[in-house]
Amino acid sequence: MATQRILDFLATRRPNGPCLVVDLDVVRDNFRAFEKALPDSKIYYAVKANPAPEILRLLAAMGSSFDTASVAEVEMAMDAGAPADRISFGNTIKKERDIQRAYQLGIRLFAVDCVEEVNKIARVAPGARVFCRVLTDGEGAEWPLSRKFGCVPAMAVDVLRRARALGLDAYGVSFHVGSQQTDLAAWDRALGDAKKVFVTLAEEGIVLKMVNMGGGFPTRYLKDVPVAQAYGQAIFSALRKHFGNAIPETIIEPGRGMVGNAGVIKSEVVLISKKADNDNVRWVFLDIGKFGGLAETMDEAIRYPIVTAHDGTETAPCVLAGPTCDSADVMYEKTPYPLPLSLTIGDEVLIEGTGAYTTTYASVAFNGFEPLRSYVI
């Protein structure tokens, strides 16, 4: 996944310390693949995945809309050239003053998952469109999303009913099937729940217009994943199954699927050691870990491909850890990672598929280590 452009950049620039390099050509190809796979759905790029200005400017110029989680992300999208009507405030947990500020900036599309959030929006964003997030099980996802977001379908009906009563536009429902979702049937189950909300409210004269199908589109790590076209076909089939010819407006929110495979982290081996003379497992310490941008190795959920100059030679299992003075800074131990026996201190390694959820998860100066540097080419 390290493109020739990335390899050439690293070879000529020789950046010091761990860094992420993102190839915009890959992002461009991914956007076009989503457009082709789901031509009737609006693409709202999830800014939180990677908010690099170069990425946002490219996607804005290509016609993308943006899913934002904060006022800061709203402003990032607008600075990149996106008009307010192509921006959604998709976080269900918002301060009232942030809702008000987004409304002042022209944002009119907001996510909710409870009556209390609807009340806030009604007070400071009159007439805004709201969509209610419905809980899904997340089965099949490598990074499942918890019960922190969303409500059961029956409550979604109450939430949207309340929105209508307060003068808001009860616009639709949303769901998220879990990040790095590899089960094509996941959207079918979620769309079935969405349809129930549509039908119940239609009987009361409240006609919903939109289904936000969220993200979850995967990038390739160590295992192959279905291509965008396969997801498009499965999702369209599920829409036809549940909504027939009356398919509503749809939105997708790719983040990982848009930028994950566009980025590579360059890292260095700081130490290789054992815990006992008869220990068969080496500990390999890199200059990047959970706190430097690899937070998604938590519970070993995401297993990144690691490329070394010694690939093709004999390997043995290693515990892979980061450089900080925190015992939690271990990436792979339950399932050790096979690395070449010839790997040595000072070697550079490439951690592939790291374009999403790395720079934004990097801590600011924990242990004095600077945040993960990023280069977009």
TrEMBL record:
<comment type="pathway">
    <text>Amine and polyamine biosynthesis; putrescine biosynthesis via L-ornithine pathway; putrescine from L-ornithine: step 1/1.</text>
</comment>
<dbReference type="Pfam" id="PF02784">
    <property type="entry name" value="Orn_Arg_deC_N"/>
</dbReference>
<dbReference type="InterPro" id="IPR029066">
    <property type="entry name" value="PLP-binding_barrel"/>
</dbReference>
<protein>
    <recommendedName>
        <fullName>ornithine decarboxylase</fullName>
        <ecNumber>4.1.1.17</ecNumber>
    </recommendedName>
</protein>
<dbReference type="InterPro" id="IPR009006">
    <property type="entry name" value="Ala_racemase/Decarboxylase_C"/>
</dbReference>
<dbReference type="GO" id="GO:0008792">
    <property type="term" value="F:arginine decarboxylase activity"/>
</dbReference>
<dbReference type="InterPro" id="IPR022657">
    <property type="entry name" value="De-COase2_CS"/>
</dbReference>
<dbReference type="InterPro" id="IPR022644">
    <property type="entry name" value="De-COase2_N"/>
</dbReference>
<keyword id="KW-0663">Pyridoxal phosphate</keyword>
<comment type="similarity">
    <text>Belongs to the Orn/Lys/Arg decarboxylase class-II family.</text>
</comment>
<keyword id="KW-0456">Lyase</keyword>
<dbReference type="InterPro" id="IPR000183">
    <property type="entry name" value="Orn/DAP/Arg_de-COase"/>
</dbReference>
<feature type="domain" description="Orn/DAP/Arg decarboxylase 2 N-terminal">
    <location>
        <begin position="26"/>
        <end position="259"/>
    </location>
</feature>
<dbReference type="GO" id="GO:0004586">
    <property type="term" value="F:ornithine decarboxylase activity"/>
</dbReference>
<dbReference type="InterPro" id="IPR022653">
    <property type="entry name" value="De-COase2_pyr-phos_BS"/>
</dbReference>
<dbReference type="InterPro" id="IPR002433">
    <property type="entry name" value="Orn_de-COase"/>
</dbReference>
